[in-house]
DNA sequence: TGAAGATATGAGTAAATACTCACTTTCACC
DNA sequence: GGTGAAAGTGAGTATTTACTCATATCTTCA
């Protein structure tokens, strides 16, 4: 039913001016997406804003979707870069430190073009998150889980996968909501402290759940 | 010559058959929204599925948006009902009990037509959440904050508003994600236990953040 | 019963917009 | 400067789809 549409560019720019054209189109698209939302982003409008003809746009992007896909691709690359810088550092720290750094990184990631981030995460009509972004989240999940497993002796959780899931969802949801919908810089500091305290307590502190690590809960269960 | 656009007010169904027509339209709309997504939901299709003419649809819904709005209205009424049943009970319990019940309620709420819930929360293009839903969330937030304030002596948090925010975001995000994207019934039990443990620990257990309740953090900050 | 209003019909319209293509211009290379 | 390929153009097309309205059919109630 849902015929998957082609997302790859039909033509790759080889000459310098063609590359410049692609850049100018992508930038205009981002600007318009932020300013007018997905609905208000028409290909003609993007071309006009870019100072380029619609034909040129369609030379490199076979359809509107592919243009948005390129915006996502670039944005996610930025997010990933910000995260991958912090991850190795976190792996070396103790639990409290790692949690703190994770939260800091989440904040930092949400500092990157938050307007675009909001539009991409809220306004683009699609079934579930983009596969590329899902892969990114999966990767972070795997890393965190591996870290938990390496530090198992220090932890008080029945399932490292579940713990990774809860921690990621908690941090992401709290930070995202704060940054996207109601940021003031002051909030952020205390939010980070509290999240950090809650998660560290959860991981290392309190009494474990009733039936710890009883059955194989399946690594597939908490992706 | 002023070509004035005729603005027909939406007609309210008075006769029984008219009410039946509205019902049949709303039900078809919900079915199609779930099955084909927002993009695939055309007014003609809804009318056809409902066994009714497009004209009839437009007799009661001035435009497509209003039809979706009605679906949201009904769905949110169900959510609210489920929550408002549990809230008074929770107020009477101790912190651990209240947290448990809150999580249970969140799960219960996400059991109501999860397919529709997913589409409404993910696929409907709009800027931020619907105002009606926002009001609902706000109400839950206020209640939880009030509860925290009443139990202040038992708690270990610097700011009840911030605590309410974190707790709600955490529960909602974890439960939503689990129910909408990767449910198996088994997961749910342990997830609830772990969330419960984490949040209770956070609220009552561990050492408070560095600078507790220093400045007026503003009740407006954590809505 | 029959008139007046309520309800239902669905072919047709208007408008928006993603996308094309015949053509022109620019570039790379000799 | 000539030539072939790459890049660029933008008026126009094709399609989709929300929405209308003249007309027909039901309901109510005097």
List keywords for this structure.
homodimer, 223 residues, mainly alpha, Arc Repressor Mutant, subunit A, Tetracycline Repressor, domain 2, 2 domains, 9 helices, 68% helix, elongated, DNA-binding
Descriptive notes:
The structure is a homodimer of 223-residue chains. By secondary structure, chain A is an all-alpha fold. Chain A folds into two domains: 16-62, Homeodomain-like (Arc Repressor Mutant, subunit A, Orthogonal Bundle); 72-205, Tetracycline Repressor, domain 2 (Orthogonal Bundle). Helices cover 68% and strands 0% of the residues of chain A. Chain A is built from nine helices and no strands. In chain A, helix 1 crosses helix 2 (43-50) and helix 5 (95-109) packs parallel to helix 8. The radius of gyration of chain A is 21 Å and the shape is elongated. Chains A and B meet through helix 8 and helix 9 of A and helix 8 and helix 9 of B. Chain B binds a DNA duplex (30 and 30 nucleotides) through residues 6, 8, 11, 13-15, 17-18, 21, 42-44, 47, 52-59, 62-64.
Please specify the SSE layout and strand pairing.
The structure is a homodimer of 223-residue chains.
Chain A: H1 16-36, H2 43-50, H3 54-60, H4 64-92, H5 95-109, H6 114-122, H7 131-150, H8 160-181, H9 185-205
Helix pairs in contact in A: 1-2, 4-5, 4-7, 5-8, 5-9, 7-8, 8-9
Chain B binds a DNA duplex (30 and 30 nucleotides) through residues 6, 8, 11, 13-15, 17-18, 21, 42-44, 47, 52-59, 62-64.
| First-residue to last-residue Cα separation of chain A | 27 Å
Principal-axis shape of chain A: elongated
Q: CATH superfamily membership of the largest domain in chain A, which one?
A: Tetracycline Repressor, domain 2
- Return the average pLDDT of chain A rounded to an integer: 88
The third-level CATH topology of the largest domain in chain A is: Tetracycline Repressor, domain 2
Query: Biggest interface pair, residues each?
Result: A-B, 50 and 49 residues
Strand composition percent of chain A: under 5%
| Helix content bin of chain A | 55-70%
What is the total domain count of chain A? 2
> In sequence order, what are the helices and strands of chain A, one letter per element?
HHHHHHHHH
Q: What would CATH call the architecture of the largest domain in chain A?
A: Orthogonal Bundle
Task: Count the beta strands of chain A.
Answer: 0
> What is the CATH C-level name of the largest domain in chain A?
Mainly Alpha
Q: Ranges of chain A with pLDDT <50 over ≥5 residues? A: 209-220
């Amino acid at each position: 039913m849902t015929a998957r549409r082609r997302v790859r560019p039909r033509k790759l720019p080889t000459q310098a001016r063609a590359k410049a054209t692609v850049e100018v189109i992508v930038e205009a698209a981002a600007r318009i997406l932020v300013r007018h939302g997905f609905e208000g982003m028409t290909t003609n409008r993007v071309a006009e804003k870019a100072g380029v003809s619609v034909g040129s746009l369609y030379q490199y992007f076979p359809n509107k979707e592919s243009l948005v896909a390129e915006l996502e691709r670039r944005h996610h690359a930025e997010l990933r870069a910000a995260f991958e810088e912090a991850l190795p550092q976190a792996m070396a720290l103790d639990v409290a430190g790692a949690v703190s750094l994770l939260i800091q990184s989440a904040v930092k990631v949400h500092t990157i073009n938050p307007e675009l981030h909001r539009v991409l995460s809220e306004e683009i009509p699609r079934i579930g998150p983009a596969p590329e972004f899902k892969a990114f989240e999966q990767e972070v999940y795997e890393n965190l889980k591996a870290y938990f497993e390496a530090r198992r002796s220090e932890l008080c959780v029945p399932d490292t996968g579940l713990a990774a899931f809860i921690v990621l969802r908690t941090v992401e949801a709290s930070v995202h909501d704060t940054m996207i919908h109601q940021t003031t810089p002051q909030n952020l500091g205390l939010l980070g402290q509290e999240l950090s305290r809650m998660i560290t307590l959860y991981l290392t502190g309190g009494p474990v759940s009733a039936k710890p690590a009883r059955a194989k809960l399946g690594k597939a269960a908490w992706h």
